[in-house]
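Example S7 (structure tokens).
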């Protein structure tokens, strides 16, 4: 079974992360699948809107696959920059995607999952959804600064400095989420939202999205991406090397779950 599914429903394309046994973790195969699916949707004239969602009830995504990340840790600065640049290019392709993207979020939305949701144009979440970035405790920094553009500044500090989880309601109160619904209504309401968006002529929507994005870019969005990416590189090559080594040992000795429990309950 594929870890990434692509479905069409009239003018709506659904990109479904399909790895519920791993809480829909983001490994390289899943990210490449999302990238390829977005390109497919962009090139399909029948598709007017995309819904990005996940299988299962427990998680939209538990974030980047830490096991894969630990096994492929890159500390050489030249290689580190190249690897980060590859990921940033994907995120910016998502930012520049010419059609609206709705993120339908349930359960845990962690780390890179927060970035995927915030790079979407609209977010609809189930009332059990929880957003957080626990990777901060490992010394990881954000790779692309979506939180600063989506959240009130002091709440973004709280999110990172306290490695805090926010509920769907709290995110809605901050105007990060557009709608909170019961889990059983999530898919139906996401489709209803997409159908409403699909009524707008596609060329008009393309220009509208480009204009709104350009407002952020004129305020310095792309410059912040470059700067934060370099801070991310420094964090990966210097600040957390010993912490990663200890975390790797904990994974080897007791598995990922026990390693995380030890880290976060220390």
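Recovered sequence:
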């Amino acid at each position: 079974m594929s870890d990434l599914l692509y479905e069409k429903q009239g003018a709506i394309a659904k990109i479904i992360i399909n790895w519920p046994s791993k809480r829909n973790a983001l490994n390289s195969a899943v990210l490449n699948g999302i990238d390829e699916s977005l390109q497919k949707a962009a090139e399909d004239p029948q598709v007017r809107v995309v819904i990005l969602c996940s299988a299962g009830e427990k998680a939209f995504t538990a974030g980047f696959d830490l096991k894969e990340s630990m096994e492929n840790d890159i500390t050489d600065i030249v290689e580190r920059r190249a690897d980060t640049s590859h990921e940033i290019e994907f995120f910016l392709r998502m930012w520049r995607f010419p059609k609206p993207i709705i993120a339908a979020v349930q359960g845990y939305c962690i780390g890179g999952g927060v970035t995927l949701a915030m790079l979407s144009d609209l977010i609809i979440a189930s009332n059990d959804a929880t957003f957080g970035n626990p990777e901060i405790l490992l010394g990881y920094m954000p790779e692309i600064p979506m939180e600063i553009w989506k959240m009130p500044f002091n709440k973004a500090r709280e999110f990172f400095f306290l490695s805090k989880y926010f509920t769907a309601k709290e995110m809605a109160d901050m105007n990060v989420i557009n709608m909170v619904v019961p889990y059983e209504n999530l898919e139906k309401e996401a489709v209803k939202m997409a159908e409403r968006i699909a009524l707008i002529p596609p060329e008009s929507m393309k220009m509208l999205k480009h204009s709104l994005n350009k407002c952020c870019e004129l305020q310095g969005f792309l410059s912040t991406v470059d700067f934060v990416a370099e801070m991310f590189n420094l964090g990966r090559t210097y600040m957390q090397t010993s912490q990663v080594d200890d975390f790797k040992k904990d994974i080897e000795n007791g598995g990922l779950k026990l390693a995380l429990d030890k880290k976060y309950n220390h």
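Notes on this example. The chain has a mean pLDDT of 88.
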